[in-house]
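Example A, followed by Example B.
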Amino acid sequence: MKILVDTSIWSLVLRRNQQSDYVEKLTDLILSSQVVMIGPIRQELLSGISSKKVYEDLKSRLEHFDDSPITKSDYETAAQYYNLCRSHGIQGSHVDFLICAVAVNNNLLIFTADKDFEYYAQHLPIRIYKG
């Protein structure tokens, strides 16, 4: 099973260098070639880094992962998910709903530390990776 790894997990593991269960779980997924990356997550990870050295180091680490294509259908599904969740009083970012759409449309699990995805899962057919 392929796993779409959310920005929150990458950030915990790569930027903050925290030793946690996330490090071990992500390492296992990488070693078993289960990790899926999309461009918007790559952009979120690389944005806001003021040090050129840190930016280049992170960019180099992420180069090992190809971006999975995002289709017109993914964007349309993301908009539907945004509208559906909003109608239930649940707010989220456009990137979050794109992650949900790509995951559903490609039969992927989502590995995240972001609790918002638990709210989305109440109304969307997403599956959260628990490890």
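Example B, a separate protein, is given below in the same form.
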Amino acid sequence: MKKIYLIRHAKAENFSPDLSDFERGLNKKGLKDIQTIASYLALHNISPDIILSSYALRAQETAISLAKRLSFSGEQHFLEELYYAPYEDVKSIIMAQDKESETLFIIGHNPQLNELTNALCDECVSKIPTMGVVALSFDIDEWCELEKLKGSIDFFIYPKQFKYYMPRQIRSILSP
């Protein structure tokens, strides 16, 4: 069983004439949202074998912060191809991964992640919000088998889900 966690980068700084879109970093809300989602993932013992992230600054900061909060010290790759490339290119990158890797975190952007989600499963996700995570499972042995079949959504979470109700376990992890 292979698993892919498609993760949209956390909330970024507003557009500015001083920065290109590629150079926008995370804002305060984005950093807080990473903490919330990382707590959920840690609570469910979810950790990747490898992290593949867009090369854009906000995606890199999301990947690094998420890895730190999950105490992940494995491989992280920052790829230009994950910055607004067609979803087919991202799928090809996934299919080229070593069969020993069971769990991938892919950190990128919309609309690419939405299109990839909808291409990889029969369910439809209309919009992945910032710091949203779509967890997909595939009954395959090697990543190259993604070409032949679709997976299923295990869960779809995003920070606003925890705005009014936060499970006690997550709340205790977030408390200083």
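On Example B: The domain at 2-174 is CATH 3.40.50.1240 (Rossmann fold).
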